[in-house]
Amino acid sequence: KNPNQPPVVFHWFPFLGSTVVYGMEPYKFFNKCQEQYGDVFTFILLGRKMTVTLGPKGNEFVFNGKHADLCAEEAYTHLTTPVFGSGVVYDCPNHMLMEQKKFMKFGLTTETFKAYVPLIKDEVVNYFQTSPFFSGQSGKVPLSTAIPQLTLFTASRSLQGREVREALTTTHAALFHDLDMGFTPVNFMFPWLPLPHNAKRDKAQKAMAKLYLDIIKRRKSGEESKKEIDMIWNLMNRSYKSGETLSDLHVAHCMIALLMAGQHTSMATTTWTLLHLAAKPEIQKALYDEQIKVFGKDLAPLTYEKLSELQMVNNVVKEILRVHPPLHSIMRKVKSPLHVPDTNFVIPSSHFVMAAPGVSAMDEKYFKNAKEFDPFRWVGHEADEDNAEKFDFGFGLVSKGTASPYLPFGAGRHRCIGEQFANVQLGTIISTLIREFEFSLPPGQKDVPLVDYNSMVALAMAPAMVHWKRRA
Ligand code: HEM
Ligand SMILES: N#Cc1ccc(COc2ccc(/C=C/c3ccc(C(F)(F)[C@](O)(Cn4cnnn4)c4ccc(F)cc4F)nc3)cc2)cc1
């Protein structure tokens, strides 16, 4: 027994350790361990030693850890590189990822968001006008099927660009599905397994990369006039500080990374939002009344400027991300023995560390009635983040203090750069659907479905059926 190592969670079998009980119900597992061992403990995940650090201090320890001590690329590259492609995100040194994130942020400006809102709205309207799930005056829709399509169409039409939007519903629809099937935690455990889905993933990755390369080539030949402002135009011809250019192939791989990032997080968040609204008609009413208040009784068209006035929408999204943060486990590889502040523990470099910000976000200590979905709890906390001290890791200012119980977009050097785009996409989708429909849970169903943790993000258990009625 090593005197100053965190306690190891009891388990029957070596290698397997706590994999199944963690994999099936991470939060139940984390809360049980927290009661038994406190905020810092080690469990075995398929032979890997995962040291979990919970609570605001635990979040700070992982998110604000020095890059020399805690390495994200070693924790994630097996999961992401086969899907995204080589040379970007976790398949390159961290300083290059910081510059890639800077380039990405250059393509996520208020000017682009102003252009994206009508594009996203049109995709939502087009979807429910053509989808068989939305014919007639009322009906029911399996969100697990409909929402992934809705988020794919809205994100590809705006951020990805028109050609990608077209390809994803025609020539590349099946390829996207094969690539998406490769984006699963099982690969995280066994990336090298020659499973059939891995062969399909690799074939799909190459075909998706080729789609982007063809688009880039066409645009460089001057055939396309630069009418639209999508992320491909933004990333083309970018150069690192070293003078090295971001190659067309690496632009393609960055685009695949952004496609995966946005798709999984947005589809999970949109699905949970509609389920909780279906369970609480009074919140739907508050959202509808706000649309009238901000856009007038004839419901003027949505604009980016007006989106920020929709406090109810913003509070609903904040509360959804508190109760259902898409990424439940944030991991890093320990590079050198690391002392955990305020404890006697030293974590050896054979371990991984894991933060689970969702545990403190659901802790009664920080949120009254934590289990309750209550968007009104955020009223009056709109601008908490603005006056925090900030720091720049190379892709813009992020808040320096990260000892917060609520970090759905992470913090520090690996903080999300998609938050604003996500809020524009979610705000536009929710506003457009609320104007058109009233939602309810299937008769007899009291609460939202259970969580399916076997995907890359915390999804609602399929089919996640809701009933809808067209508003008068
Ligand atoms: C509700 C939506 C989203 C949530 C909750 C979310 C959450 C997160 C979190 C928690 C991290 C930190 C991961 C870590 O520390 O290991 C992160 C990083 C990141 N996210 Fe998001 N994300 C969302 C949407 C997006 C979108 C739409 C994009 C792209 C358009 C995106 C791109 C990224 C990138 C590039 C990183 C940086 C990874 C790194 O630096 O290691 N995310 N996100
Ligand atoms: N047997 C078994 C068995 C055992 C255990 C389990 C359950 O185990 C787990 C463990 C971890 C996890 C999820 C963590 C995790 C981390 C990183 C990423 C990411 F890198 F991919 C991401 O941050 C994602 N992201 C960010 N913003 N938007 N998307 C990202 C970054 C940049 C980028 F450009 C594109 C990106 F998309 N994704 C997910 C899920 C399940 C199941 C089965």
Chart the SSEs and their pairings:
Layout: H1 19-24, H2 26-37, E1 40-45, E2 48-53, H3 55-63, E3 70-71, H4 72-84, H5 94-106, H6 110-130, E4 138-142, H7 143-160, H8 162-169, H9 173-181, H10 185-189, H11 196-220, H12 231-235, H13 248-279, H14 281-295, H15 304-307, H16 311-323, E5 330-334, E6 338-339, E7 346-347, E8 352-355, H17 357-361, E9 390-392, E10 397-399, H18 419-436, E11 437-440, E12 451-452, E13 459-460, E14 465-470
Parallel strand pairs: 2-8
Antiparallel strand pairs: 1-2, 3-5, 4-14, 5-8, 6-7, 9-10, 11-14, 12-13
Helix pairs in contact: 6-7, 6-18, 7-8, 7-13, 9-11, 11-13, 13-16, 13-18
Protoporphyrin IX containing FE binds at residues 72, 97, 101, 258, 261-262, 265-266, 269, 321, 326-327, 330, 408-410, 414, 416-418, 421-422.
